[in-house]
Write a structure and sequence with these properties.
Elements (H helix, E strand, L loop, with lengths): L2 H29 L5 E2 L4 E2 L4 H37 L4 H12 L7 H5 L3 H17 L17 H14 L1
Helix pairs in contact: 1-2, 2-3, 3-5
Length: 165
């Protein structure tokens, strides 16, 4: 798979994380009284108790989804870096890492690896081709991708590891 497609997947996951975090922040802010207004015949405060239960339940659901999504992002990014590290040429690996993992501008990439822009362009193009030809996992099977079906089993394993430690 091309590095740009891998990064597009990672960026989509990162956007989903941001959306979930924003939704949690919004729900939490709805629980905090933004202000209490006093009228002579009534007091206006935060949502009713029934509504609070629904909000807390939704926050818990989103938090679970956020945790899983963050683990997926970590796995994808670790896999990306592991694949980049398997590129034999150090300049190629560094150019891919800085360009796509650290989001260094194309114009500044030469400064990071100590080459001219023209040399950097050639090296980056070769590096992208090498990346495309690499298998997604090494012989040791270091990269891990979790599908929806693996979700509960993965969490159970994580909880067991935490309890054992």
């Amino acid at each position: 798979m091309e590095i740009k497609k891998v990064l597009a997947e990672i960026n989509a996951i990162d956007k989903k994380i941001k959306i979930l975090e924003d939704e949690i922040r919004l729900l939490k802010s709805s629980c905090i009284p933004g202000g209490i207004s006093y009228d002579w015949d009534r007091v206006q405060t935060s949502p009713t108790a029934d509504k609070m239960g629904e909000i807390f339940s939704r926050i818990e659901e989103i938090t679970d989804e956020l945790t899983f999504t963050m683990m997926e992002a970590i796995n994808r990014k670790a896999s990306l870096i592991e694949r980049i590290n398997r590129i034999p040429d150090m300049d190629e690996a560094m150019s891919l890492y800085y360009r796509y993992c650290e989001n260094v501008r194309y114009e500044d990439l030469g400064d990071y690896i100590g080459l001219s822009q023209r040399q950097t362009a050639r090296i980056l193009k070769r590096a992208e081709q090498h990346f495309k030809n690499l298998p997604e996992t090494s012989e040791t099977g270091d990269a891990v991708f979790l599908g929806e079906g693996d979700r509960d089993e993965y969490y159970d394993d994580m909880i067991m590891n935490v309890k054992m430690a």
